[in-house]
Amino acid sequence: MMYWLYSRFIEMAAMDGTQHRQVDVSSYPTSLTVDLQGKRLYWSTTTTLESAALDGSDRKQLMTKSDASIKAVAFLGGHLYYVDIYSRYIWTLNPSQSKPTPRPVGPAIYGYISGIAAYSSQEHIHDAHPNGSCGIENGGCKEICLSTPQGPRCACWIAAKFVFGDACSVTNYCVNSPCRNGGTCVNRKGTFECICLPDLYKGKGCETAVRYNYYQYGPSQGDVKLKTDRGFSCDMSKKSCKSNFLRIPKIQIFEGRYTQVKIFTNGYVTFGLDFDSRNPVRLNQEMLSLTKRLKAKTQGITMMAPLWTDNDATQGDVFYHIYDLANAGSTATDLARVQHAIAHAKEDILSSSDVSVTDVSWVMVVTWSKMMPRMYPSDRHDSPNTFQLVIAYDPLRYQTFMMYVYKKMGWDNEYLIRPSSLGYISSKFEVNFLQLAPSNKSNAYNLHKKNGNTGRNGHYLFTVATGSQEVNYDQMCYNWMRNELDRISTVRSYWRRTLTCPCDLRLAKADGRWKFDRKQLKLTGGQRQCIYERMPRGFSTQECCYTSSGSLISTFDGRGGQLFLYHPRWKKLHERSDVTPKKWCCQLSDNCLYFYRVRPLDRCLGYTPLTIGWFFGDPHIRTLDGFQYTFNGLGEYTLIETTYGNFTLQGRTAKAIDKNGAERDATIFSAFAAKDDDSDTIHVGMTADKDGLVVFLNNEDMTGWFNSSNVNDDRDFTSILITKTNNTQLQVTFKTGFSLTIGVSAEQLDITVGAPDAFKNQTKGLMGVFNGDATDDLLPPGENARPLSNSSSEKTIFTDFGELWRIQGDVDSLFHYAPGESYSTFARTGFKPLFIEDVLKNMTAAKSAEATKTCGDNKECLFDFAVTDKAEAAAATLETNAKNTKVAETLSNASPNITVEAVLNATLGVESNLTVSAFDPDGDDVTVAMDSGPRGATFDGDVFKWTPTNMESVNISFSASDGKGGVASVDVMVNLCDCSVHGECQFDQLADGYELKQSFRVVQCSCNKGWEGDYCEADFDGCQDNPCTEGTNCTDLTAADEVSTGRQYNCSKCPPGTKKDDDACYPINECDPTDPQHDCEQICVKQKIGFTCACEDGYRLKGNKNCSEIDECAEGTAGCDHQCTNIDGGFNCSCFEGYTLNEDLRTCTTDANSDTAEECRKLNCAHGCKQNGGAYECFCRAGYRLENDSKSCSDVDECLTNNGGCEHNCTNLNGTFSCSCYDGFQLMSDKMKCKPCLSGTWGKDCQRDCNCRDSDTVCNVTTGCEECPAGFTGGDCHDDINECDDSDNPCDEHANCTNIVGTFKCLCHVGYTQFNATVCQGTSRSTTMWLIILNHNTQINSTNKHHRHSNIAIIILSYTTTAT
Questions:
Q1: Alpha carbon distance 1181, 1187 (integer Å)
Q2: Cβ-based neighbours of 781, under 8 Å, separated by 6 or more
Q3: Which CATH code for domain 897-1019?
Q4: Is it the case that residue 1206 has pLDDT exceeding 80?
Q5: Alpha carbons 1163 and 1275: distance in angstroms, whole number
Q6: How far apart, in whole angstroms, are the C-alpha atoms of residue 732 and residue 330?
Q7: Would you tell me the crossing angle of helices 859-868 and 845-855 to the nearest 10 degrees?
């Protein structure tokens, strides 16, 4: 059978799923185990252990433990083992006992235990079923054997289905998950098949990453598609575009760090600044001038433009995908995609740059897919452009890389010149820009065929942040927080188990469960005091912090407390999980608000203080419910015993000694012993001279440790914490929440007990029944006992209550006994004490008067004075009682509550109001005050009023006091806005430059139409995004005009040959075949402005419009061997008789068996012969002439006549000629005329690209690059200049010059050091000249360089000489 947990049920079934049944256990089990031999089920809830028979009958509860968190159980050898994560122990108990007692197994375990298993080879039970066993040859099954009541049953997985029977002879090859990188395994006969993620991985196990020259994109890759026609665009004159920015982790680009990126359909992205323009400009000073508007003055502009041009956003798609290892998604597919993209980026970077190592963990891919130019429908002659921007970021090194990847560029720029700009610019701090050479040139649209700066076609790589030694704490915080969010439910469950913070510092000091963090007190100079639990129930504790005035800090600015996931006692875990992350997020970066999402702040909601009682003097007792009585028993007694044995406190008394050393019939406490259910046992007594403490832990003497420890030193033991509060006092804190403070004074012990509310109605003993009702505190032991009346006499209390709580022998005792001692050593059952009423009645008048001087009318003090005749003992009784009474009053006095809006949204020049109210849970009068506020603000105790007059930072806080020490305070977050009269305040959007953690923030404005600026103070400049086409002027409209017309600007009239479309001027297509507006005879060719005419093949342009037929035969350009016949638009070649025209349709071959062949052999013709009038004669091929011997042929130089018809150069060849063009031109289709090179190309036949080593310079079509970067020369700037040439050696005579590609280096001679790049200097020596002015002829002998005497002045002058 198999058993499992579901909701509040234990379910069971045979291994093949039959015989299923369900047992309702009416709770929610956390774990389950089976005792097969004993045939019992055992399970746990969070706080109980339970058992039942295998069928769910005979249910029993073995243990209840209210402060436990049981997570796992196991059974072995007749014992049940379980894990309690809050005690840090594995426990065991014997379930066969009538009242099983748990015992810890081994030492404490400092870590989270999520499961437990127990195994013994001797107790391993084999299937003894008569029909066979799954343990013997797997029951005959090939794959899975299931034990059932009828015997083994075979099963397996086939085609993702669980089946039984003979079909299970097929082995499941997918059982071990052989497919990697998100691949899906499909079981096949005798093997398996991995279905890999398409276009990402391949191989039998999907182990090989697929690489392309571009990054995979599109919906199949999980990309996000931009939804608006113009990408993330909006009307800047109406609403802020901040919300349209894509938020990203803070990445470094040159000197700036950005958290927002905006993607535009026109082929570029911007960071931090919105700039939406269809008209590209050069990414240099021209762009800087354009953006030096109001909105760019403080930010500058940062733009990455793989291809900024005027795209038609209605055609094509724009995708983006962020691959982040810190947020890789929840599925194997998501993770595989992230790993693939990041590995791809790393390979590109390492193979294409000087970078030797990078830890890129964040990659963003933006893809402009199948983008078309913006033009009229009839003009769409292009194929689309597809290109990518890839940003790869190494957050720990602040390294950022940018790649431009051109997959396929299809625009026909020869047909229509379209402006473009490629490169990047950043001007937030320092100006950095790069204008790629193809910008605004025709080869911008064939970059996929050209080598980029990586040496690969269509691939460019730029380092836009070289890295820093500075640690990126934003990223450190971000990565940590992502990991924490993955286990947020666990973190919050720990938080719910921690104690609630005391509401003010007064309560924190009185509540013994809390420990003060003196390190924080020292660090803040007393301005902030923080506490945490002394002994938490689990790993975690709440930190609570208070102002110097005592108010709990509840703001999210890093000053307040937090959840400590690990108590400070676990120093390394605490430092790593709590302290260091807070530094990253709150001190070293601006992410404190997010930090508190995973380390919650406590606001003292639901705080319940400890309730205290105390034993003092000649035993006087104040119960937890506040009843006070005196009990002078002699022996060992139970002071507190909880119902379930969770906590026990015992006290030992001894006879009181008077000032003469004589024993009296009264007692004092001489020792206390205590433990909770799983703690060590502590015994605290007095030293022999009764002025110090002795401490035993589990009978081990710890007195030496106590005496040698410093005040406030802690020591952690099993579920118990001991703190030395001073040399004669210690505090003991138990995991159950009980707190004991034990001290010695005046030769007697006193103890203060703190009990948590969780133990109400669970205590009995001399401390009484803790339930808030003092009338039942005198409850004797026994099931049917009834409490004594509080008005009972001391004698009755002694005999009918106190003496009944005497412990019953060594078995019950928790005390330490010295050798020869036992329980009976201290048991004095026949002892009859003095009683207060008798002592005070019989006290002499003189002694009564003396006692009254010390005690006043306090009867406990008077009794102690009368019995011991010691004023110091009586005074100690009085002082202890008064001190504890004050603490009890403090704990019972609740802090007031103060209510006010947490956030004040204020506007410059407008009065803001806040209503502040407070009440006290105890009904005390409350006073409310404004602790801090802005200048000019008023507060009358109820209403706060303030009219902001400037944008200076302010703090607003209020406090409430009940006059009894109870205080509460609150800080108000101020959102200040100044949108003048031209905008609306966006109080939920932080203005640039302000941190989330600040209590004062300036917020953004949403400007009305026609206005812009941080405060909507400037008329919106409609021309700032360069909206008008080149060649037209932009006129900004006033705000009033924008409102009335709905426009932001006007563009001037379009230039001739263009027409307007959506404020852009596009060339009129005079060549449109559906509406021709040209007078070309044959072909119309569209130009940027206007058109030109061209001719079909076989025709030549005559004038500007008409075409004339080319007579290739006459011009000798046909290339016919024999005969050439000109036809309309071309020509035909033919052969003389006896020859055959070859496949090239130009050359001829002699027919070997023809008469012509025979006759030609007789004539010995150089080229061939033909029949002419019945006779044969020699002829020459075209381009040759027949010599006088009528046989030989000589070449005709066509270039001598009219330059062969060539426009530029004519070169004579054997039998023909060729035309060529000057540099900067290329031959046209007629092979004679020349046309200038298109932009972006230069040189012979326009074969060279204007790369100019990616410099932004003029490219001359004839000579190439006019200016090259320093260190390079040549038409394409690829030739290195040898700066070390003897004729122009830049180094001085004391250095050797070494040429380096693009530069040089001067290496100094021996004995010289580098002064600057070109100059070396010799080793310096310093000569010092002393100028001494002495008054009164005083002499001085000093080696100091600067010396002043009352009548002496010394001036030192020094100079440096250089060795040569």
A1: 13
A2: 638, 764, 804, 805
A3: 2.60.40.10
A4: yes
A5: 57
A6: 47
A7: 130
Quick: pLDDT tens for 427-458: 776 788 888 877 777 677 788 888 888 888 88
Record the tokens describing residue 263, joined without a space: 């993607």
- Distance in angstroms (rounded) separating the CA atoms of residues 1275 and 1262: 9
Distance CA 467, CA 477 (A): 19
* Across 820-829, average pLDDT: 91
User: Could you count the other beta carbons within 10 Å of the beta carbon of residue 719?
Assistant: 23
Among the residues of 238-284, which ranges form H helices?
none
Q: What is the mean pLDDT of residues 1015-1040?
A: 85
* Angle of CA points 609, 815, 99, to nearest 5°: 75
Residue by residue, DSSP assigns 1012-1052 as ESTTS-EE--TTTT--SPTTS-EEEPPHHHHHHHS-SEEEP
Asked if the domains at 173-208 and 1286-1322 fall in one CATH topology, the answer is yes
Domain boundaries, the chain: 2-125, 173-208, 211-466, 473-598, 611-892, 897-1019, 1248-1280, 1286-1322, 1324-1362
What average pLDDT does range 524-537 have in this prediction? 86
**Among 701, 753, 703, 697, residue whose Cα is nearest residue 728:** 703
Alpha helices (runs of H) in 819-926, residue ranges in sequence order: 823-826, 836-842, 845-855, 859-868, 871-892
And the tokens for 67? Answer: 């402060």
Buried residues in 767-792 as b, exposed as e (16+ CB within 10 A): bbbbbeebebbbbeeeeeeebbeeeb
Q: Which CATH superfamily is domain 173-208 in?
A: Laminin (2.10.25.10)
How many helices (H) and strands (E) are present in the chain, helices listed first?
19, 97
Was domain 2-125 assigned CATH 3.30.559.30? no
DSSP string, 885-919: HHHHHHHHSPPPEEE--SEEEEETTS-EEEE-EEE
pTM passes above 0.70: no
The C-alpha atoms of residue 1149 and residue 1167 are separated, in whole angstroms, by: 11
Which fold would CATH assign to domain 1286-1322? Answer: Laminin (2.10.25)
**Tokens representing residue 1097 in the block:** 């093949």
d(C-alpha 531, C-alpha 1221), whole Å: 89
**C-alpha dihedral, 741 to 621 to 840 to 833, nearest 10°:** -100
**Of 114, 106, 116, 124, the residue nearest 42 (C-alpha):** 116
pLDDT for res 389: 96
Residue type, 219: P
Give the DSSP letter of residue 1278: -
Six-digit token pair at 199? 């276009």
Q: Is 1336 left (phi over 0), alpha (psi -120 to 50) or beta?
A: left
Q: How many angstroms separate the CA atoms of 353 and 462, rounded?
A: 9
Nearest CA to 746 out of 869, 858, 925, 642 is that of 869
As a residue count, the chain comes to: 1364
CB 195 within 8 A of CB 202: no
Fill in the amino acid letter for 1216: T
Nearest to 181 by CA among 326, 366, 322, 342: 342
- Cα gap 877→879, rounded to integer Å: 6
State phi, psi for 803 to the nearest 5 degrees: -65, -25
